[in-house]
Every structure is written in C-alpha cells, then in structure tokens.
Amino acid sequence: MGKRILIVGGVAGGASVAARVRRIDGDAEVIMFDKGPHVSFSNCSLPYHLSGIVENSADLVLMSPEKFKKQYDIEARVNSEVVHINRDSKKIAIKNLITGEQYEESYDKLVLSPGASPILPRNIAGIDSQHVFTVRNVVDIEKLNGYIVENDIQDVAVVGGGFIGVEVAENLRLAGKNVSLIEAQNQIMAPFDFDMAQILHKEMMDNGINLILDDGVQAIADDAIELQSGRKIAAQAVVMSIGVTPETSLARDAGIEIGVTGAIKVDHNYLTNDKNIYAVGDAIEVYSQLTHKPTKLALAGPAQRQARAAADHMYGMPHNYKGVIGSSVVQVFELGAASTGLNEKTAKAADISCDFVYIIANDKVGLMPDSNPMHFKLIYEYPTGKILGAQAIGKGNVDKRIDVIAAMITMGGTLEDLKELELCYAPLFGTAKDVVNYAALVGLNLLYGRFQQVPVTKVRELVEKGAYIVDVRETGEFARGHLVNAVNIPLSELRDRFDEIPKDQPVYLHCRSSQRSYNAVMALQNAGYANVVNISGSFLGICLYEYVQDCTTGREKIVTAYNFK
Amino acid sequence: MGKRILIVGGVAGGASVAARVRRIDGDAEVIMFDKGPHVSFSNCSLPYHLSGIVENSADLVLMSPEKFKKQYDIEARVNSEVVHINRDSKKIAIKNLITGEQYEESYDKLVLSPGASPILPRNIAGIDSQHVFTVRNVVDIEKLNGYIVENDIQDVAVVGGGFIGVEVAENLRLAGKNVSLIEAQNQIMAPFDFDMAQILHKEMMDNGINLILDDGVQAIADDAIELQSGRKIAAQAVVMSIGVTPETSLARDAGIEIGVTGAIKVDHNYLTNDKNIYAVGDAIEVYSQLTHKPTKLALAGPAQRQARAAADHMYGMPHNYKGVIGSSVVQVFELGAASTGLNEKTAKAADISCDFVYIIANDKVGLMPDSNPMHFKLIYEYPTGKILGAQAIGKGNVDKRIDVIAAMITMGGTLEDLKELELCYAPLFGTAKDVVNYAALVGLNLLYGRFQQVPVTKVRELVEKGAYIVDVRETGEFARGHLVNAVNIPLSELRDRFDEIPKDQPVYLHCRSSQRSYNAVMALQNAGYANVVNISGSFLGICLYEYVQDCTTGREKIVTAYNFK
To answer: Cα dist. A138→A38, A251, B103, B139 in Å?
Structure first.
C-alpha cells in the first residue's frame, strides 16, 4: 500500500501537489477535497469572462474530477468541505455540501491549500445585498456576469483597485458598462509607486472609467454607493475587491501555527508545525529574500513551486529555498504594467537605503510600427548598486523587461551587471541599448555621483518657488506645451548660450524624455556649473503626472498644454 | 586645449564613442570620419525599406553631421576615407572621396570602428554584375530598392541565410517578389540548431520563399543563377549575404595586431597593441565567456558597450569586462526567433559537455486570444546544470524568454536557479509556469536521471528499426495524423492497459507536446518498466521536423498526416 495523501483545496496549489505526487509515486492514494464544484480552473482568467474574451465560462474549468481520475489516478471530491483536522488520529472530517453528510478520512500526509477569501467589511451597510459580488472562482464570475446580463445592468461600481479590481473594471468597461473604480488609497495597484501609478490612472480615465481615489465606501444602496466623502455613485451592481485574507480557520482550530502576517506559518519545505501537515498557496506566509521578513504573496506561480517542493519533500527530495521577490503583471486597456521586487515605498518601509532611476525610453526602434515610449523605474540599493526592484508601464513588452530584472534580482545582480547584459536586439523587438541597460547606465551615473536628479513629483514645488528651469527641447516642441516659467534653450543652441544661464543658483533641466537634458546636464557641468539637476522623467513624465493630479484634484495648472507625444 | 580624439567610422561603434567622450569631456576635440555619406543610421532597419515598413529611406539616417555639430559639438566628416595611420607621428591621412583631396590630422587618441564588409567570392562568375547587390548601408539599400522598383524586378535571389539574408528575403517577399533564398549549408540561421532551424524553414516555405539548402552559387547570369548542383534559379536581381569580414586593412597596414579570428585584437579596454589606438565594433575580436576563446560578434548592442568602455578608459574610468555570450533575435514572417549563448553545435564544437531540453509550451494561457505554442531549446552543461544557451521560436514573446536566459547565463545561473525564477504572470502575458521555468524542470529531471529522452531527429531511425512507440494522445487526435506503426494508448487509459505494453524492450512515448507523455513515462517507470524513453518535442516536433525534411529531400513519409495544431 502506498502513502495516503489528502489535499484540502485544488487549483494552483492543491492540484499541483497531487499531480507531482502521482509522477513520483504510482502507488500513493491521492484525494483532493474542494468546497466548490471545481477543483481546477484558471483563476487569473476569471475577469476575462465579463468582457467575453473568455466567452464560455465552462472553458475556465481546466480539469474535471473525471479527467483527474482517468489521466492521473487522482481522486477529486468537489462540493466537499473539510471541517476538522484531528492531528492525533491523523484524520480529517469532511462535509458533503450537497448531501449534508459528514465522514472521516485518514491521512499519512495532509496538504492544506485552502487559499484566501475576499474581504467583506461588516461595517458597510448593505454589504450583504444580493447585488454585491466578489470574484474568487468560476461560480462567482458566473453569478456576477449572469446578474449583469439578466438585469441589463449599466452602472457597476468596483471597490478596490488591486489586480482583481482593475481587471474586473477593465473587462466590464470593455463590455460597455459604466464603471466606477473606487479606491480608498491615493493610488490603485500597490505594487507601483505613486509616480508610476499616475500612468495607470490616466489610462483608466482615458478609457472612460470613473476613477475615484482617496475615498471609501460608507454604504451600499440598491442603485448607488454612498462614499465616505458623502459623494454618491450610481451602481446597480457592486464588486468588492479590496483584498483577500488567508483561509486559516481550519488550520487554526487544529492548532497549526499562524505567522505574524496572519497566514499559516511553514518552514522552507512548506511543512507546518505538524510534521505530517504541509501548507501551500495563498493561505501561507512566505519569506521575502529582499526584506528578509515574512510576507504574503497571493500568486499562481509561487503556489505551483511550493506545491512541487512540498510533494518532493514527502519523498525525501530536497528543495533549494531562496525566498520570494514578488513579480506580477496586469493589462490595463492598452498598457501593460509589470513589476518585481521592492518599489520605492516598500524599500523605504523596510528601511533599506535605496535610490531610483525613472526613464522613458522607446520600447523598440522608433522607425518600426508600434514603437512606443515605455515608462521604467528601477530601484537599487545605495551605495551597493544591488538591484532591488523595477516597474515598467507601456504598450510594449513590459513583462520582458521586468522578467529580466527579476532574474537579476534573484541572482544578486547589480547595476554594473545590468549595464553589461547582452539582450537580444532587432528593430522590431527593442533597441540596441535596451530600456533595462539604459536604466542601469543612468543608475551608475547617479551612483557614481556624475549627476543629480529630481523626480517629477517635485516639479510643482520647483515651479512655485521660482526655480530656474531650462527646457532643452527644440522651440517647436516647446511651443506645443511647456512648464510655465521654463526657459527654452534647445540643446542644439546650448553651447552658444551658456552666458544666459546663471551660475549662482541651481539649474534644473528637462527635455522630452531626459536623453537630451542628460547631455545638457553634462555639458553644463563640464562648463563649470556646480549645481545642475536633471528632472527625471522629463516633460513626458511631468505632463503625465501633472495632468492626472489636475484631473483628480482640480488644482491650478503648471503646464501650459499637455503633450503626451 | 582638450584631447584630440579621431574616430574612423560612425554608426553604433564610432558615434557612440564620440557621444560618450563629449559627455565626459566638454573640451575634447572629437572628429569622426566615414567613407560613406552617412555617419549615423539604423543599420538593423535597412531591410525594412524593401517592404516599405520603413517607407522613406531618409528616415534610416538618424543624425546628420549638422546635428552632431549643433547638439554635441562633434565634427562628422562624411565621404572621408581614412587611408593611412602614422603611429609614430600620431597622424592619419584622410582622402576626401568627393574632391579626391588628401590631408592629415593628428590625434591624441584614435578609435577604429571600420566595421565589416560583405563577402563577395571572386570565383563566382558574374559576381561583379550591376544586378548583384550587398546590404551594408543606406546607399546600398537605396540602390537595391531603386533597381528593383525601376526595373520592375519580380524574381530575386538572396544568397546566404544569415540575419541579413533572411530579413532581406522576408521583406522582398512582403513586397510581393518571387524570392529564392539559397543557403550552402543544410540550414539557415546558424545561431539555431538543425532541429530548431526546421521551424524557420517551414515558415519560409509556408510564406512562399523558394528555399534552397545544401547548394551554392556557381555563376550569376543576367536573369538566372546557376547553382553548384546545376539547378537554375530565375533572378533578375541578386543579393549577396553570405557573411561579412572585418575591415582590417587600415589597421593591418599600420602594424596593429590582428587576432586568430582575423579581426583586430584588443584588450579588455578595447585598446589595440598601440596604447593610443582603440578599436570597437564589427572589426574587432571579442572574448566568449562561455567557450573562453576569441570570437567575432557583429551586433549593435555589444558595439555600443565597447564604445562606452573605450571612451571611459581614455578618461581613466575602469570597465568590468565579462566577455560576450551573443544574444540575437530575428523576425521571420509571423515567427520570432531568438537565441543566446551556445547551441548544441557550438557547445559540442567547443568540447563542452552538455545536454539539452526541447519543449513546446504555450506562450500564454490557452484561453486567451493569440495563445500559441513556443518551441524552446535549452542547453546546459552536464553534469553541473549550468545554463549555456537557449533558442526560442514562436509567434509569442520569444525575446522575453531569451533575454531571461541571457541574464541567467551572465550571472552564472543553473537549472536550479531557473526553476525557481519568479517571473511575472497574467493570462495575457504567459503561463503560471513559464516556458523557461518548465524547461528548467524538465532539465532537472533529465540531469537527476529521472527519465530518458530521445530527440525528434532520431524518430525516423526508431520507426525504421521497428521500435515500440506509444502515442498517448486521445484516439481522436491520433486519427488526425500519427506515426506509422505507433500504438495508440491514451494517457487516460494507460493505467488500465499496462499489460499491453511489453516489458522486454524499450518503450518510446510521445503525445502532442510532451506533457502527457512525460506523465506516462513516470507512470510506466513507477509500474516497473525499466527502459522508458520520452520523445522530446513530441508529435508537434516530429511533424515539423519530418514535414520539412520530406519537403526538402522528397523522402518517404513516416507520419500519416501532418497535424501542426
């Protein structure tokens, strides 16, 4: 008789443990239990049913219990809730949610993969209304979509601007709905810094999303949401996506240790404090290789790796655990937005000394069709130059750049390493000096003190205090929109016009994307100017940042005309 | 007075040295000399003028001498050939190709960036005809395109299936021409192994290119090419792209040392044997960090990095030289084809002990629009598991996967590292277990001796000798095309049909893409079968390989019907 391995929960964590165990051991008895009717579905594809990109919700289900049985000799019991673990007798109690019947099964090894459930704050009036939805599984998305279609709902409010909120909002908008996205923080998409998030805010607004920041939900009525500000938002359907919380009650009741983050605590083999019980997926606490602290990470890739490592450990195979960095990507209408590692906020919160580069570079050779600017922010440790994280937003291959950075972080790479990286280049795919090489070069220039920079977020302050700002774009570009009070001295005339530029005060420079202004900075420094500062992100960055702030706060403009080209 | 820096040749190497020097040193006198009328143009974009993707050839020119002067205070002298170097007096002799005038300029530092010129074998009759072209610069591509347009040429022969040959052939085909691509070797695109090259061959043929392999040019007549086989190919225009040779005559005449590869020898600061003369770009010899041998690498990215390092060295700034790995990508109609590091051929030629993984995996979640199979081959050192190289071909983001591998190679990564890599995932961008993670997992299973594989290139031999081959796809899939003599036992029935499978001989397995057959291999091994072998690449790989071989050699079929889905 083989081992008896019971698994609580399917999808990326549980189903991957089951499949891996079967490949290692033909004799093991493997049984998966899931509360819902499906044991294997494409979690991350759920929102795409709302727009019809995934037309048929049945396609979201990847493997049926029958197929698990036939292909892998794995038993999958659906509509089966595991309600109790008896660690002493090594038995679990299961409730059949269809028949109500309860029974027990014994295990040699138990794997917990219960996932995380959407947070529904009890203090919001109306939170239990039938038109309030969450999105966790196929049943949820079918209910939400069914409700919208059957009732011909036009106004939908999505509460919470994380991955699920953004994807749900986008797909509902693609389906032609009036969508409000309500976020209590001052930005959506926490993996991105505030400056980078503005690009996403603009894309949301440009695509007709009613974006509401810095405001929370007070109460939910039948056809409107009342916000904490008192504002009312029309909504005949509400999707709550403010976050998830690890499902720990089963583990907690059995005396399984819970970590400081509130998720199940595991060791580097994904063993809990019970040597016969493993835990994987969104319910567990993982270790950040960057902050050296426990953290939570609800992503499919890590869950699969955890599952494999847990299965391997049952059979004595070792696992080289490095800790997580957290890489993710999301599509926001025409933009891709990807990130990995730490951002400026999380690095500072972890008290890690860091600096950053923000560049806007062509994603491919400008002559090629669909060449577009890519916004790229690179965070590195100061003074070591060790790469800590990056964020990329643009129409081009943001995931490519972020995956390269993820590889560099994992391998302990520095700016020097990144600068030398030989990436593949052809005009249709990138530029000879790729965005990531270029960011490393700028970072090294900063690290070695070759020039100074100020971020776009500080430009308003500079303008208000009357700083000397030189716009080195050509006069025609300047005429199409510029900072109020900026002086226009094109790079092509700079060397002949040094005498117009004061030496007794800081000189701030920008062009369109920072390349010309960087050359101007170096020229001024070489000409003896002591205090020259490049505005990182340059006019493209300033425009974006200021435009979004103007839209969301209604404040006075400091750019004469927006010019995003 | 600043340094006087003279540069022979512009584009990626020379122009980058000039710009970097200017940023470091406002006082340096910088003069670039170029034989041609352009000092800065998008080399790699040249072929795209033939299809009209770059409609206006003037757009290929990036910076005019006037702009170099105004923006960077760099003098660019075009139509100016440097004909002699006097190392003792530190002077060069320049010939003005317009006026015929010859004069001298003195230097403190001289940079050679003469590039490489297309090879034109003198022994081919007709090689000097006016309808024989090469593609090196803007003038060349204007001449070629002009000739085709003015004479309404319909039949063009492209000789040589490297990057330029393939891109020229594709762009001419996109322009509606009848294009023959003639390659003397048995495959195009040397960075790819023979098995991977078949995918490119099929794409060429599917798009109407007359692909001729294993045949060379004997003679060029006015409207046809005669091949060494005696075959005649209609061609009223011929593009020679069989390779390039470093331009070394100027250096050689001046006693600059030439390396074993025939290119200019430089140290790790790109200094030649003369401490006042640097050399960069396609004319120099570089060091392979993988074979630990000198090599040549005619690519734009490395040229730019060499340029920066040389300029930095002039000003005492150090450069961390790691050696090259060689990363590249090319578009072949609907397919991208990228590679980095060593392939099976080059690793074996360098006597490096290696093994490989060949997988065919979805580039994104199957439910999403434009999800396609990606062919991926990973080469690793045996027995260390160190990653040596990779090749990716498909409609999806091949460059992303190869850039990740390039980063891993540069950082000394192994299969274990690659397996754990946290890449960003969303259904529109990839799969939770990305192609590269998946390849690492397969590689580790091989490395640890968990299963055996045989490549698609050996399947014919297996079929011919009557090997026992099990196709574990479902019966419906089998019916649409299969190997002759293969036994169909679907994975879903395998565990009930073990007794049909002999234990006394090797059992070879395949499915569509290798995932099911891998599970079948493990199931058989767990059931006590001692000699079970997975066919790497599986039916998709077999189909492709055999189809192309059948087309090019006309041999007997071993697949009942091709099924590339």
So the answer is: 8, 25, 79, 60
